[in-house]
Structure formats: C-alpha cells, structure tokens
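Support request from a user on the community tier.

User writes: "When I paste my structure tokens into the form, the page sometimes reloads and wipes my input. The last time it worked, I copied everything first. Here is what I submitted, just in case something in the input itself triggers the reload:"
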C-alpha cells in the first residue's frame, strides 16, 4: 500500500511510556487498555489458531516465551485460549522494564506465568529454550542492529516456532488509529504512543533486507507485519 506521509521511519520519536519518570497512573491505564485492544488490533486470537496452536507439542506441556511482555496481556490471552482448548502450557514473560513486570505481577494471572525483568540475551546466556517464542509490538522500538540481534536470540531460544507481530507503517494505519484511540487516550498514553509507534514501524521491504533467509514475512489485516521462523526437523 502506498505511503505518502510515512515514507521513512521516524526513529527520533520516543514513546511517552518509555520515560522512566512518566505518570504511573497513566502508565497503568495504558497497560490496562492494551489488554482490551490488542486481541482485536493485533489479531492475537486469530494468530493463536493459525500459528501458535499448530506449533504446540501434542504429548507434553508447551513452553512459551513472550519477549517484551509489557503488562502481560498477550500471555494472559494465550493462557485463556489454551485453557479452552485443553492444552497444558508453561508461560514465561520477560521485559527489561521493571515497571511492566511489576504491573503484570499485580494481576491474578501472575499465578500462571513466570515473569522476569530481563532481556532475551540473558536467557540465551543461560541456555534456556522454549517451544514457541512470541513478541508483540517490540520490533518498532528497535534499530537495525537491535532487530538483527533479536532475530538471533529468538532462533537460539526456540526449539520450534518464533512469531514476532508488529505494526506495519502505513498512512492509512496512522489515520485510522485516531478514532480507535481517542477515548482510551483519556488519562493514558495510548493515542500519542500509538501514533508514534506507527511512525517508527518497519515496512515489510525494510525488514526483508535485514532478515536471514530462514525467516518469512507475512501480512495480517489490519496493518500487521508478522515475522515467522520455524525450525526444521
């Protein structure tokens, strides 16, 4: 789809919630809204059925890692969907921002997941592996060097599938986000940070220039880019 305004990534922008001194109430409200909007906007309910569930081992609990887990909304959704399907899973969420981990630990869901304030490199150094490695809305935070590093970490940590789900930079995505976020923006960072995220997001062509050949790029409606890696038998 053509981009007339957002032809290039704006890497100078920073999301307000990344400020270590940002308003903690607005930050908590932003995490709360993520749990309401991400299943719809990021299409994780659909991706669970199309990508995650088929990658689950049939004969033992599935070990799933969420890189950059934020407030834990993706892990919570995966837990609920797997429970409905009768699948046994072991969930781990990591995020270098301790505020995110603290928020996730305050929810009742924390009893069902291991939450760690670390980055992916630390788990690689420890020799940890998981059946499935996921991330949501992480890629647009990264420069090319960090993105390449994350791909390497993901491959090292996964014995099966990796799925990174992020925004695709697009003029229509930027325009369409305004009416979606205007009400949730009250006393949260959702509108400003969402618009900045779109302007920082990668296009599929930009990602294709950086990815190793064993990765594939898929598109999902609306305005989603999926990076998928499946370890061959």
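"...and here is what came back when it finally went through:"
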């Amino acid at each position: 789809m053509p981009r007339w305004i957002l032809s290039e990534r704006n890497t100078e922008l920073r999301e307000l919630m990344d400020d270590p001194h940002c308003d903690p109430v607005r930050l908590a409200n932003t995490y709360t809204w993520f749990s309401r909007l991400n299943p719809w906007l990021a299409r994780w309910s659909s991706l669970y059925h199309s990508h995650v569930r088929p990658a689950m081992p049939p004969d033992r609990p599935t070990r799933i890692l969420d890189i950059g887990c934020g407030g834990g909304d993706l892990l919570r959704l995966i837990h609920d969907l797997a429970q409905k399907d009768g699948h046994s899973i072991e969930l781990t969420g990591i995020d270098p921002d301790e505020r995110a981990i603290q928020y996730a630990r305050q929810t009742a869901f924390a009893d069902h997941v291991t939450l760690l304030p670390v980055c992916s490199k630390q788990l690689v150094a420890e020799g940890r592996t998981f059946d499935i490695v996921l991330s949501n809305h992480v890629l647009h935070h990264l420069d090319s060097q960090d993105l390449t590093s994350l791909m390497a970490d993901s491959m090292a940590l996964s014995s099966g599938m990796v799925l990174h789900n992020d925004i695709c930079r697009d003029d229509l995505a930027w325009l369409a986000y305004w009416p979606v976020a205007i009400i949730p923006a009250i006393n949260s960072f959702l509108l400003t940070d969402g618009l900045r995220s779109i302007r920082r997001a990668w296009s599929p062509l930009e990602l294709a220039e950086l990815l190793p050949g064993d990765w594939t790029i898929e598109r999902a409606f609306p305005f989603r880019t999926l990076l998928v890696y499946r370890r061959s038998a």
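Agent notes: The reload is a front-end session timeout and is unrelated to the input. The mean pLDDT is 93. The radius of gyration is 17 Å. Escalated to web team.
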